[in-house]
Amino acid sequence: MADDVGGGKPSNTGGAGHDAVDSADSASATDSTDTDSTDFADPAGPVDPLLRVRNLTKHYPITEGLLAREVGRVRAVDGIDFEVRRGETVGLVGESGCGKSTAATSLLRLEEPTAGEVRFEGEEVTEYDAAELKRFRRRAQMVFQDPTSSFDPRMTIGESVAEPLVVHGMTDGERRERIVRGVLERVGLSADDADRYPHELSGGQKQRVGLARGLVVDPSLVVADEPVSALDVSIQAEILSLLDDVQEAFGLGVLLISHDLAVVREVCDRVAVMYLGEIVETAPTDELFEDPQHPYTRALLGSIPRPDPHRRGSAVELTGDVPDPSDPPAGCRFHTRCPEVIQPDGYEFEQSVWRGVMDLRVRLRSGRFDDAVVRETAAEADGVPAAELSPERVAAAVREEFDLPAELGDDDAERVLSDAMSALVDGEVETARERLAESFGTVCETVDPPLDATPAGHEAACHLHGEPTEPGAAPDEGRAD
Amino acid sequence: MSDPLLVVEDLETRFRTDRGTVRAVDGVSFSVDRGETVCVVGESGSGKTVTGESLTRLVPSPPGEVVGGTIRFDGRDLRRLSESELESVRGNRIAHVFQNPQDALDPVYSVGWQIREAVTLHRDVSTSEARARAVDLLDRVGIPDASVRVDDYPHEFSGGMKQRVVIAMALAAEPDLLVADEPTTALDVTIQMQILRLLRDVQAEFDTALLLITHDLGVVAEVADRVVVMYAGKVMEEADVYELFDSPSHPYTRALLDCLPGRGEGARAIGGRLPDPTDPPDGCRFHARCPHAVEACRTGDQPPMVPAGDADHTVSCVYYQPGYDESVVTNGRGPENDGSEVVDG
Ligand code: SF4
Ligand code: SF4
């Protein structure tokens, strides 16, 4: 598959697409003194993946005051590694705010990465000068962003699709037209659609035009950001199979950004799952779906409502919201929500109860715990003034709030928890926090787990897979700076 | 046996546009029992959203107008109510929750203020009572530290939390019917499940009927008691949720289930496009895309709803009429159908 670069495959639609590819190539050759990429080929040439990203990092400074003093950083992308090979479709999935779109825009240098290496066809993208960057922008195309707003309503479809050719210096109008009509057919539209206007097209057709516009300059990498999220399900399948087809026909490497695991499963060869700026698991698609190794991946997969009412209620439910990326949790970033968070040595909890204890600990740590609030809520529920609540009632209300039983099964654990509860009832939040922290510490909150091989054969970043290193010796500490 | 809470019959809603009159909802009938969850499922252009908006005259008019049918809610036809009478139904006995929570929240007031407004609009209570009620509602929809967060402004809440606030607001008047239009579509999947569970919980707790409008069959399977499948302004199939997923009967429903990505054999798109809403075709609205269409599908009106199997399972398709062999339709590829089971006609 790695040899299929450059649309060398025989065309099955009458050669129109092939024509587009060749002509676009020569378009850039006439462009300037532009050289072919092979001149820059890495000595490692053929084994080099099309795209290799190392430690890609994008932080946005948070500034304050007139002097714009930096007071913090949003760690949108925080040191990620992945690659895309020729002829391969790689999915980058995660929820909003996980950094997947920022990863795409910074690797394309649509915004400058804070740190990291991006090797594309053996060259270092982060070192490109303006001319090289222009050529790179032809070879690596971003497609499918919001189809409705990305077209000029006054331009015909043909003009829109031809625009990148003009930008890259193809002056021969007739030839442009021939290429455009060919590429429109390749994406399942008719050549005559070139004369229509965007408002005459359906959402699915606009996505096809968007893809045509990306393909017209013969890229070797296509970055597709949420290609179908704006489309109805009946059209999604159609666009996804089109993406599959052109990927094969053009031998493209495709990086697909999506929040939708079902979409990723449909078209990707490999998948990387992101959470709060980091990749937490990466695997061949089938393996990821059949044998997910990271608790976050399991939760993501488990929280998709299945179209099967017999399995209702079986979905995993994550508690809480995604933490603020300007202040990511220490240790494993997922520990504030992880249903499988590791239990402290020497105690035995039911896992869901342990999760509740962790929720309480996270809240105490955040400084957002206020015993007056608990009192007030309990008082309202009981219909008595807050001052009249017994300490036992207040403690019970705290347990209720965190879904903790009236008494833990493990006597030692219960002693710790009741100590903490008494402190809380007395308004000594800090004492309670300390009591819980010193007895109920977990490796998940102290050590950032590296992305490591798992028994399933692929990589995940979770302490459940192997002995963690010594607490305090977090390998990644300070890395981001 | 009490009457259903809501009975919609032959609802017709149209929009006047430059390109002609769009028959967005074209003779739709369904009912919702007290405490029941009914899902209206369809793609964009199916008329599902307009159906929900038509109930309480939320359809922007002009260009929209409910031109026919009855909407009997708790014994009264909402279409015959004056604007002020309807006002007391809307938000009070029928509350709406939409896709984007920020549209329902005013950025300049605290969420507590907004919930208090909703409370006092419908009940004569003191300010402090209204505040206590707001805190209680926020607590019940799962906002941590409700008595503190009640004074926060909408922008201080995440998307999922905002939708919780909107649900709390909708529940303020203890409505009999909650109409939720794609309430989780704008949310991430882990948050979506939280909100779906919340809707189910509050529905049980408040004994509210829920009309949930969605394109997502996964959401339907998670919450529905009964399902109404719409296409191009018409109801195609109606069934108990288990019945619908176990024996989908209408070719459109079957096609819809087949095109879910990640269902093993590879998703299949439904070829073709929605018919022109200003000039819908004769016969079955789905005929241009239906693999089983015969001559009878192309003439006359949309086939009447007739039973398919279960008494409560009805379908608008000629194959379920006397003289046709429905196995033609059900033997195709379907989610749970290996063709060995014969559905009783
Ligand atoms: S390291 Fe701990 S908190 Fe993180 S995913 Fe693994 S078990 Fe969960
Ligand atoms: S009535 Fe005809 S066109 Fe419509 S769904 Fe049935 S078979 Fe298909």
Automatic annotation (TrEMBL), chain A:
Alphabetized SUPFAM superfamilies for the sequence: P-loop containing nucleoside triphosphate hydrolases (SSF52540)
Claim: Transport is one of the keywords in the record: yes
InterPro entries documented for this protein: AAA+_ATPase, ABC_transp_ATP-bind, ABC_transporter-like_ATP-bd, ABC_transporter-like_CS, Oligopep_ABC_C, P-loop_NTPase
GO biological process, one term: transmembrane transport
Compositional bias of kind Low complexity: 23-32
Record keywords, A-Z: ATP-binding, Nucleotide-binding, Transport
Region of interest: Disordered: 1-48, 451-481
Molecular function, one GO term: ATP binding
Domain ABC transporter: 51-301
PROSITE patterns membership: ABC_TRANSPORTER_1 (PS00211), ABC_TRANSPORTER_2 (PS50893)
Comp. bias regions, Gly residues: 1-17
Family (UniProt): Belongs to the ABC transporter superfamily.
Name of the protein in its database record: ABC transporter ATP-binding protein
Origin species: Halobium salinum
Automatic annotation (TrEMBL), chain B:
InterPro entries cross-referenced by the UniProt entry: AAA+_ATPase (IPR003593), ABC_Ni/Peptide_Import (IPR050388), ABC_transporter-like_ATP-bd (IPR003439), ABC_transporter-like_CS (IPR017871), Oligopep_ABC_C (IPR013563), P-loop_NTPase (IPR027417)
CDD domains named in the record: ABC_NikE_OppD_transporters
Entry keyword Protein transport: no
The reaction(s) this protein catalyses: Ni(2+)(out) + ATP + H2O = Ni(2+)(in) + ADP + phosphate + H(+)
Gene3D superfamilies named among the record's database cross-references: P-loop containing nucleotide triphosphate hydrolases
An example Gene Ontology CC term for this record: plasma membrane
Membrane topology: Peripheral membrane protein
Lineage: superkingdom: Archaea
Compartments where found: Cell membrane
ABC transporter domain location: 6-257
MF annotations from Gene Ontology: ABC-type nickel transporter activity; ATP binding
UniProt entry tagged with the keyword Cell membrane: yes
Keywords per UniProt: ATP-binding, Cell membrane, Ion transport, Membrane, Nucleotide-binding, Translocase, Transport
Enzyme Commission number(s) from the entry: 7.2.2.11
Subunit structure as annotated in this protein's UniProt entry: The complex is composed of two ATP-binding proteins (NikD and NikE), two transmembrane proteins (NikB and NikC) and a solute-binding protein (NikA).
UniProt name for this protein: Nickel import system ATP-binding protein NikD
The species this protein was found in: Halobium salinum
Native organism taxonomy: Archaea, Methanobacteriati, Methanobacteriota, Stenosarchaea group, Halobacteria
